[in-house]
Amino acid sequence: MAGTSRPLVVSTLVADGLVGSFGLGVAVEVFGYDRRAMGLPRFDFGLVTERPGVVRTDTGIPVTVEHGLDRLAASDIVTITAWELFTRVPSPPLLDAFREAHARGALMISQCTGAFVLAEAGLLDGLRATTHWKYAGELAARYPAVHVDPTVLYVDNGRLITGAGTAAGVDTLLHVVRREWGAAAANALAREMVVPPHRDGGQAQFIDTPVAACEDDRLGAVLDWAVAHLAEEISVDTLARRALMSPRSFARRFKATTGTTPHAWLLGQRLAAAEALLENSDAPVEEIARLVGFATAAGLREQFTRRRGVSPRAYRQTFRAASGDRAA
Fold first, then answer.
1. Rounded to whole angstroms, how far apart are CA atoms 194 and 204?
2. What is the mean pLDDT for each group of 10 consecutive residues in the chain (328 residues)?
3. Helices in the chain by DSSP H: which ranges?
4. Active site residue 112
5. What pTM does this model have?
6. What's the angle, vertex CA 184, arms to CA 183 and CA 188, rounded to 5?
7. Are 278 and 317 in contact (CB under 8 A)?
8. How far is 119 from 142, CA to CA, in rounded Å?
9. Residue from 13, 69, 112, 245 carrying the catalytic annotation
10. Helix-helix angle 262-280:297-308, to 10 degrees
């Protein structure tokens, strides 16, 4: 990814009658605003189509597009939201522009059925990829060289990222933000968008675990207290007493309000806090384990590896390496 001394050029491909309205809105929400206060770089965001002019979304909304495919030659990030009509094969110039952008080093991101265009260009051959579950079988049948996984929200292959259907575009682009600019930026953007930083997509991903929102004032105060005291031993009984409830009633209300259990919520908070410390401090894993409430460093390593798919040390090294590349 290019440095931040100039705006990062982000281009979203739209095709008449094929572009998904929701996916387009997600791309605009992430890349179309000045988010530098959240830790993101400057973006030069634009829509691209083969014939500039007015195109219509899949719901018929007209959109004016000023840029042609030539913009892809100068783009750092190229996204495509959807390609709903499988009978319309992407044109050779479009496919060539995608291949050239990828060969030049651009980050290519598809949402939903946009994966069909990446596959048609041959960019997903031999790689794992995903799309909307409804069309996963079609993608696998058309492109047998692609390893289609319909069970996940997105698949990260480095400079090729494929996302699943509709709202998974939010998860996909938040993952990009987290990967490129850190957990703090992704969490700040998620708060701005009023969405969880991440939803569990059925695989260990290199991102934060889901943290359910709490709109219950009494529970909210208890959870705020818990986040401020993660280093302490916190039990359901402890939380229930602070909420002035019995443990059974508290657990039932907690589940109904947040959609998860107190234990799972605490684990997610502790792992998120550990992740932030790994990114932003030089504290040893043993000290981080103590600060976030794990009894031992081994306990942190076990849970972090299970939930993130990498060890705390490997996570820190990868994040630092990526940060160094961005700074360079």
1. 23
2. 75 91 93 93 96 92 95 97 81 97 96 94 95 88 91 88 90 91 88 74 36 60 90 93 92 83 89 87 91 93 82 80 52
3. 21-31, 92-104, 115-120, 136-142, 168-181, 183-193, 217-228, 236-242, 247-258, 262-280, 285-292, 297-308, 312-327
4. yes
5. 0.63
6. 115
7. no
8. 9
9. 112
10. 100
